[in-house]
Amino acid sequence: MTLIGPLFLLGLLGIGLPIWLHRLETQVTERELFATTMFLEPAKKRIHVQKKLKYLLLMALRILFFVLLVLAFARPVLFAPPEAQITEDTTHHVIVVDTSFSMQSEGLFARATDRARNIINNLDDEDVASLYSASTNIATIAPTSDSPESLLLALDTLVPGNGKLDLGAMVTSLNTMIEESQANFVIHVISDFQQTGQAVRFADMIPDVINGRPVSLTIESITSDNTPNWLVDSVLVSNRDTIEVGIRGFAQDPSQRTITLAINENVQQEQEVSLSGESITFVTFENVSFEEGDNRINVSLSPNDALAGDDIRHTVFDNSPPAPVLLLTDNPESLGVTYITAALETAPRGYEVVLQTIEDFDVRVLQRYPWIVIEDIGAINASLASGISEYVSAGGAVLAASGESSLGLATVPVLGLDVGNISLNIEGSNPVTMIDNSHPALADASGWGTVNVRALPIDITNEDRVLVAQAASQPVLIERAIGRGRFMLLTTTLDNTLSDLPVRPVFVSFMAEAARYLSNENLLVKEQVAESFLQLSLAGGASGQVYDPDGESLLSLSATTQAQDIALNKTGYYQVFTLGGEVLVAVNPDRRESDLTIMDAQVLQNWQNVVAGTTSSVEQALNSQTEIATEDAEEREIWRIFLVLLAIIVLVESILGNQHLRVKTGIL
Amino acid sequence: MALTQSGSGGKNSGDARTRLLDPSVLGSLSNLELVAKMVVEGFVIGLHRSPKFGFSQEFVEYRQYADGDDPRYIDWNVFARSDRTVIKRFLGETNSHLMLLLDTSASMGYGSGGVSKLQYGKFLGASLAYLSSRQHDAIGAMLFDDDVIEYRPPTSKAGSMQGVIHTLDAAQASMGTDINKPTSRFREHIKKRGLVAVISDFYCDAEELLENIRPLAMNGQDVILFHLLDNDELSPDIKQSTLYEDMETGDAIEVEPAFMQKAYREKINKHIAGIKEAANGIRADHVLLNTSEPLDKALHNYLTFREKRG
User: Fold this and answer.
1) Is the Cβ pair A33, B117 closer than 8 Å?
2) Which of B255, B268, B271 is the closest to A41 by Cβ?
3) What is the chain B residue with the closest CA to A43?
4) Is some CB atom of chain B closer than 8 A to the CB atom of A648?
């Protein structure tokens, strides 16, 4: 330890002050019995300097106060030795334990931890080791240490998770996580080495040369045979009363199982099924009844196999009635109406299209609908335009197309955009060249590239956001926020005359996404794989509260007001409460983890051999030595600790001093 | 007649007697009767044989036995010869009574040495009782603080001395001092002339004491005031300021050494003088006793007092 400001030690002379003060006495406090005080006269008050020190504990506190204050100013610095002395002769064992879902298979994880324990117990005196868990994410369980006890303690905290291990991702993460040092690295990967965990590119599984030091890989395979396994692979609801379940097998022989269907935790049906060993067996449950809103569908197999976690699948089915959508048109028989109606009614959410002709439409009805579709913006009159403006300002949403009537417009109703002359030359292609796929309505933008449109030339303003455009900045789809609402305008028709959008596959998904966006529904995917992240912002609000499958709230009160990404580490149903309402999210393990087929032994051997070739150059090693030497001793300033102690002592001194004061008051 | 103390015993014998009467030695004895016996015997050994004090046990005359006389003193030889019941009378026998009034207030519990004032008072009272018992006097005792704690009327019956000593032995120091109540009580019950020994530190007003003692004297009682004070009360010697707590009231006062050295001594001496003057005013004897000194001074004064009253 050393001091940054040793001159402050002169302040220790101040210790004399409490010592002198504690010899002063204005009042004798120790009583002595006397037969009578009738002849006594009280002495005049004066300060005595006693030989004997009074209130030793209080004085000790005050002296300690001075000492700590002086030391805090002197700023002592501790030189902490590095946690482990690492030299060129040191071997750094990087122990990586697979904690992916497949390790839940009977007895597998116990074997893995036994293997890790064995490695730790056999460390040489000069060796160090660090411990990592590997699943979807790689986590440091124990930092580099030469203490087997601390490593074993950390190992005991490991449990298998629900994620998926990708060996390529694992090696990439290790490259960034392993501390640089002069040691020779030995990476021990303890895993069941599923075939599905193998990286797509073999090169991804080769670690970088760690600080120029030799690296070797030890394959610690804990299983040598392919364990048979079946999983509930898929659950599909059709016609709101039928469920089709797919059971996938990874086994040589078929198996007889009971499949149980439970809706909202009530068992509805059971079927005895002979499951195929190597393919998918489909089982249909008919006449299934659902409750309105989100339903929890649990399909489970019994008896369980070695990997029981995938014998049940959690699914959420939204059984809400179709939402009404108003479609305004000047021609109910037009092709555009047909295309729009078909797209909306086949959307996953299901919409009920309410068709109204513009000339018969009563504007007051608008408020009944969260959003509306206008087939041809050019067909609406001024009063309807005014009504629509008010509707949008109040929070409504509109998706409008530019039909035949729009071709002769000077300005676009509601938006007031100037319209140029449209070229009716249909020769040549007019593809879409720009798609803003950050917009929720365009999340699935893959099909837009094939769309040909002839768009109405409009002069957009700063208020307009271009979502889809052609070359020469010709907008195809724009959005404007008006008041609390949104207005989306397609500058082309939806009747397949000036645009082939309605006949392209992207049209249906676009209408579904636009409908969900404009109706303010949440955009959450209701089925997620374990150890992925849930964006609360997609659930209809940037903040909210989330309850995990065990009913535990995951966010603190303060965190509920902040945008959050929630890690979905457990399987089951997460309840998400946001401003957009309540949403259920079903979480299941990654299906690939259920395939317990192990990697080819030759591939593993090759991997080991290739890694063993990644040795360092001497120059790199020497360079690293100088860097590490400066990091041998870490400086730690401890004056803050003294400040904390000072605060405690001041508190105790006040309490103790007060007590002594009370005694004196009692005498007088 | 002047009282002559032993000088023939030589220095050693005198030291031994003094040692026997030393309060610190007596304090180590748990039996108060034994203490009294040791004190009196030790005291008597030191005296010249004197016919005045009746300790020689020399026969003077026979007297007809009367009710109330101690049958132990019946001369059975005379009874055998003449069939008369007579009792022997000895020289010095007074056939009077002694009433001991012992103050048991809290201040009597004070003692800077090994013996408190109350303990000293007990020794003194027991010794007087023993002495009087030898002279066939009726003995009674009263314990008081600010009230009468226990009252034992004077009697010369067998065991009266043991009874008095037992009463004295049970005394505990507590409460304050009020001389009025014991003297009033005493006046109510005692009509016969006798001796009254008041053993106290007399932390009371001299005038008040005078007013309370005066009726006793007027009633024919001979009063002797044994004024007990500790050496530290008479000559306090403190080196630094001290916070004294009153044993009776609990009040605390911080005093300085200079005050105790001078002003306090003047005050306590003035108080003693006041008590003495009050005693003289009613022809009572006042004996100031330092509890660190042997008891012989007290006994000597007592005998002188008895001698004076004839």
Assistant:
1) no
2) B255
3) B255
4) no
Q: Do the chains contact at A35 and B203, CB–CB below 8 Å? A: yes
Task: Locate A568 and state its tokens.
Answer: 């979905």
Residue of B nearest to A28 (CA): B243
Cβ pair A305, A228 in contact under 8 A: yes
Instruction: Decide if B162 contacts B33 (C-beta within 8 A).
Output: yes
ipTM of the shown complex = 0.74
**Closest residue to B256, CB basis, from A29, A36, A43:** A43
Q: What angle do CA B67, B72, B73 make, to 5 degrees?
A: 75
B203 and A34 within 8 Å at the Cβ level: the answer is no
Residues B151 and B294 in one domain: yes
> Is residue A517 within 8 Å of residue A436, measured between CB atoms?
no
**C-beta atoms of A43 and B117 within 8 A:** no
Is residue B192 located within the same domain as residue B276?
Answer: yes
Amino acid letter at A357?
Answer: T
| Residue B243 to residue A667, Cβ atoms within 8 A | yes
Residue ending a domain, among B47, B75, B90, is B90
Residues B67 and B103 occupy one common structural domain = no
Last residue of a domain, one of B90, B113, B130: B90
Which of B254, B266, B272 is the mutation pick for testing A, counting most A CBs within 10 A?
B254
Distance (Å) from the alpha carbon of B254 to chain A's nearest alpha carbon: 5
Note whether B159 and B268 are same-domain residues.
Answer: yes
Assigned architecture for domain A323-518: 3-Layer(aba) Sandwich (3.40)
Q: Cα-Cα-Cα-Cα dihedral of A80, A84, A88, A93, to 10°?
A: -150
Global model pTM greater than 0.95? no
Residues B82 and B152 in one domain: no
User: Do A43 and B263 count as a contact with CB atoms less than 8 A apart?
Assistant: no
Q: Do A35 and B242 touch (CB under 8 A)?
A: no
pLDDT average per 10 residues of sequence, chain A (668 residues): 76 82 69 85 68 75 87 77 61 90 89 92 86 89 87 90 88 74 80 87 74 75 82 86 90 89 92 87 91 90 88 88 88 90 83 89 86 91 90 90 86 87 63 84 77 86 90 86 91 85 86 84 74 71 76 75 76 81 85 87 82 48 40 64 86 82 50
What string of H, E and C letters represents the secondary structure of A31-84? EEEECCCCCCCCCCCCCEECCCCCCHHHHHHHHHHHHHHHHHHHCEEEEECCCC
Q: Give the residue numbers spanning the domain of B162.
A: 95-309
Alpha carbon of residue A373 to chain centroid: 36
Class of domain A91-225+602-628: alpha beta
Asked whether the beta carbons of residue B203 and residue A29 sit closer than 8 angstroms, the reply is no
Tokens representing A375?
Answer: 């087939």
Residue B1 covered by a domain: no
For chain B, 310 residues long, give each residue's pLDDT as a single digit of tens.
Answer: 333 333 333 333 344 444 445 666 666 555 677 677 767 766 666 554 444 444 445 555 677 887 767 777 788 888 888 888 887 766 555 557 888 888 888 888 998 877 899 988 988 888 888 888 877 778 888 888 877 888 888 887 777 888 888 888 888 887 776 777 777 777 777 667 788 888 988 888 878 877 887 877 777 788 888 899 998 999 888 888 888 888 888 888 888 888 888 899 999 999 999 888 888 888 888 888 888 888 777 777 777 776 665 5
Instruction: Kindly state whether A32 is in contact with chain B, defined as any CB-CB distance less than 8 angstroms.
Output: yes
CATH number of A229-319: 2.60.40.10
Question: Residue B300 has what pLDDT?
Answer: 77
- With a CB cutoff of 8 Å and minimum separation 6, the contacts of B270 are none
What total number of domains does chain B contain? 2
Find the distance separating the first CA and the last CA of chain B, reported in whole Å: 11
